[in-house]
């Protein structure tokens, strides 16, 4: 079961709380990752590959401030080739929104237990990526007053 983002209702002014709620609604089925559902999922994002559908995401800083700052999605932090990584679930499936050396992207995990390197995203992952990017774009537009 996935978890909802932390509730900042006590620290946000009422006007920003309304924006937060509207942004969450705009995200639809995009949720914070929550606990891994299997051992394979726990390492799946390390072997993830960039989706083409994620290339339409808004600017990296808007996505970061939306997901991490406003909505409280967990940030996995910085590592070798990644400035930040936010694991998400869409329709119960795991994905990563990451700002890597080559820019912002939506990454599909490799869930093959025998994989030693990432493989190409599946057709389902590509379709999901397009939908996720559209939902994040919609949520960024709804959250514009927060960014100001």
List the defining traits of the structure above.
148 residues; alpha+beta; five-stranded antiparallel β-sheet; 5 helices; 5 strands; 19% strand
Across the major sheet, the strand order is: 1-3-4-5-2
- Please state the overall shape, judged from the principal axes of the Cα atoms: elongated
* Helical run tally: 5
Sketch the topology as an H/E string, one letter per element. Answer: HEHEHEEEHH
Low-confidence stretches: none
Query: Number of DSSP strands?
Result: 5
What structural class should be given to the helix and strand makeup? alpha+beta
Radius of gyration: 15 Å
What profile does the largest beta sheet have?
5 strands, antiparallel
Please characterize this protein's 3D structure.
This protein is of the alpha+beta class and 148 residues long. Helix content is 36%, strand content 19%. The protein has five helices and five strands; from the N terminus they run H-E-H-E-H-E-E-E-H-H. The protein has a five-stranded antiparallel β-sheet with strand order 1-3-4-5-2, with helices on one face. Strand 3 and strand 4 form a beta hairpin. Helix 1 runs antiparallel to helix 4. The longest helix has 20 residues. The protein is elongated, with a radius of gyration of 15 Å. The termini are far apart. The mean pLDDT is 87.
């Amino acid at each position: 079961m996935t978890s909802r983002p932390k509730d900042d209702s006590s620290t946000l002014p009422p006007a920003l709380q309304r924006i937060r709620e509207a942004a969450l609604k705009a995200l639809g089925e995009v949720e914070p990752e929550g606990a891994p559902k299997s051992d394979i999922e726990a390492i799946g994002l390390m072997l993830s590959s960039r989706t083409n559908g994620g290339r339409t995401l808004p600017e990296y800083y808007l996505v970061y401030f939306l997901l991490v700052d406003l909505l409280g999605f967990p940030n996995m932090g910085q590592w070798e080739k990644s400035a930040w990584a936010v694991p998400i679930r869409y329709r119960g499936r795991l994905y990563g929104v990451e700002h890597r050396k080559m820019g912002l992207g939506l990454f599909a995990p490799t869930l093959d237990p025998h994989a030693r390197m990432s493989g190409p995203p599946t057709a389902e992952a590509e379709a999901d990526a397009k939908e996720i990017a559209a939902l994040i774009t919609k949520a960024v537009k709804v959250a514009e007053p927060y960014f100001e």
